[in-house]
Amino acid sequence: MDFSSFLLMRHEIILLAVILLLVVAEVSISNAKKSSVVHLAIFLFGIHTIVGFFKIDYGSLFGGMFQTNELIHFFKNVLNIGVLILLLQSGDWLEEKIIQQQRGTEFFILLFSSLLGMYFMISAGDFLMFYLGLELSTLPVAALAAFEVTKRISSESGIKLILSAALASGVSLFGISMLYATTGSIYFAEISEAITASNLTILGFVLFFAGLGFKISLVPFHFWTADVYEGAPISIASYLSVISKGAAVFILMILLFTVLKPLMHIWENILYGVAIITMFIGNLFALRQQNMKRFLAFSSIAQAGFILLGLITGNQLGTTTVVYFVLIYIFSNLAAFGVVQAISLKTGKENMSDYEGLYRTNPNLSLVMMLALFSLAGIPPVAGFFGKFFLFTAAASKGYYLLVFLAVVNVTISLYYYLLVIRAMFLRKSDNAIPYFKSKIYMKLGLLITAVGILVIGLYSPLYDYIHELSKSVF
Amino acid sequence: MDILSLFIIVPIITILVLVFTKNLKQARVVSMIGSAVQLVMAVNLVFAYFKERAVNDSIMVFTKDVVWFEQFNIHYNIGVDGISVALLLLTTIVVLAGVFISWKMYHLPKEFFISLIVLSVGVYGFFISIDLFTMFVFFEIAVIPMYLLIGIWGSGPKEYSAMKLTLMLMGASAVLLVGILGIYFNSDADGGALTFNILEIAQVNIPFEAQKLFFPLTFIGFAVIGALFPFHTWSPDGHASAPTAVSMLHAGVLMKLGGYGVFRVAMYLLPLGAIDWSWVFIILSVIGVVYGALSAIRQTDLKYINAYSSVSHLGLVLFALLMLNKTAWNGAILQSLSHGFMTALFFALIGMIYGRTHTRDIGKLGGLLKVIPFISVIYVIAGLASLGLPGFSGFVAEMNIFVGAFQQEDTFMRVATILSISVIVITAVYILRVVGIMLMGPIKNDAYLKLEKVTWYERFGILLLLIPIVGIGVAPLWLSDMILESLDPFIKGLL
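Output (structure tokens, whole complex):
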């Protein structure tokens, strides 16, 4: 066997090396200097992210179990950037809270293992690899959600996540077994040739879709979202809403557009309905939220509904717009969560009413938050507008004007609750506003990158063209 | 750098400089210089346009076309015709006047002027866009700063008004988005490529079914900001709560985006849909015209009076556009301009009166002519212009509209026209009522005897707005020539 072909798994191998290095570091660094683990981990992951951009060959390994192409490679880089920003934003939290409890390294090992699972999941060439990746990406996150052991609510959220995730992946596995029963294969390439729209296949697809729908938190598989986000540490809530969701959307898209393409007339209708209820439920429930984490949880459910508008097309335009939207969504949501985290870390306050008068005391944080919310709401000239407009264009290209209409109604509803936060920060005055504070360099850097990303990604059209070029490799 | 892109770049530079200003003095001087440069550029553009028009007979001149998103055929494509030149001139004047009127904006001055100028970038970009996508982007950029402008610097129930205004306008633009996508995906009906370019789409015969479906979406999407009944309810609340300069800009300029968008996009690109649907919107706009004027009679708050008067006047613009002939269209554009200057002037005067007397309730005001004669006299002049007295811009506009409307011969149109002409009388009632109660009569409050004198910057802002009102009224021909020759491509679509 030619070992050089293992280089196709470069992302996975380097990340594994980073994890092992961190294990060594855990053993060899004395307790007094444990905070250097944070710097080390961010540094190593930074290098990993940069190396990811170097050119690489594409192909498949292990008889087709593992595959890469340009788009998959690009998407792993996108996930890396997201995780890097997230690490920067949570650096202060780790140093101040977690290192004291001697648990810094576990955080990184668990987080990176979960990311490794996502790599395998989106690179999967058969359902076995897919399922292994899915499990590996979920289980460590449950441990991370319960990471603040001193808080009861955090343990609660860990239990909630692991129970619902176990159920979801069980259902998904059941669906996969039905697909195997009807097609006689677990390899994607063979399934796409053998699959027909029999009742058993459709049932299998629906169960399988439910499992992924759980990860994307589509309605009606969304019940865990708000509770878990509220209890989990903010960086983990952020991870779940951005990285985990992004990876699940991506693999769902690959499967729908290639393997399950023959069932398109079936899943079109399913996605149509799910998109509508996801947008409405997410948005309507977000209206009344007071806790910022719950607020962002429902907002991220609604955003998932918008993503389905791109998935429903089943063509290259859909692929491009979905990847583009997810990229923008990562930056926007990370910015919002970053601000929430910065404030929560310094003051412990997480409610919308605590944000009143924030602009007068912390103008820069408020401006980043405003950018993030405008981007989530889809207001030009920030990136979110372009992401949403192109998603809607993709849906309209298939003639789904009614769906687009319902989506724009939802954009207006969502604008209301995003404006509520802006109202608290800019319009209101408060006697006990959050006092001025300075964040440390990691947090500043993390927020700066997201802010620049939000401003630039939309206006810089070559990026879109680049993704469009890459998305040819899916078909 | 081409002459039109400067209209975007200069305000952006102004904003960047504003970021580094430290206090009110610096902020207002920077904004004034920026807006004054814009005004000079706009005046220069008018002359350059006449010169260019003499040798160039394409629909749009000074065009510039840069590919933006290649996959969707989205371009940064700009150009102007007579209509957009006139509206650009209006915008620069109102913005500069607004800066003068906000000379004493002590509360967060930097943020105020930045938001104001961001809004103006949206308006400039909207008027020069040929590409539907770019146009839509600028449309939303123009709307969203209103939330902060009303919410932070407003008065009264400002949070409510700001939220209502923003949601209604953004909701409308969301509907508009569906309409634009509909137009886009039908732009290949003749076998060409999909395009957002307005001039190219106008050459395409979009199927009648599609026109019928997407015309109302596009029309309503734009007309909400032009205060189409029954979607006008954001306007009185928004105007009443907004600070003076924002009311000026909003009523004077922002509401013009509605009429312009309806004309340039909905009616130009979907002419068959316009003919098919016109009766519905004629009924709505006539209701708006009459209802707005009648509501104005019953209001006691000066800003509400003016806001309802705007609903009435802009209803007339939509009504005239739907009359589908050149005379009425010319009147509609002139009415847009004339209303822009007049209503900005009104709001400036109301702001000055309110700043001195601390009330906008006409019942509490009286005899102002004796104590603040400058403001009062200008108020009377603006009022007379508003009710369409010959010699002012309002007369020229309304004359054209009604002459154009009477060219429609069937009974329905006749009835609609007669109903909307009745508004001239009603306008006279509410204008003269305010003048009588507020300016004439005894001085109701002794404190009014010691009112502050009019300052130089206020005079400056007022005169800036007054000159074009009289100018258009006395010598309307150069303007209507400029507009009329730009109307030809629009009428061709209907034949």
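The mean pLDDT of chain A is 90.
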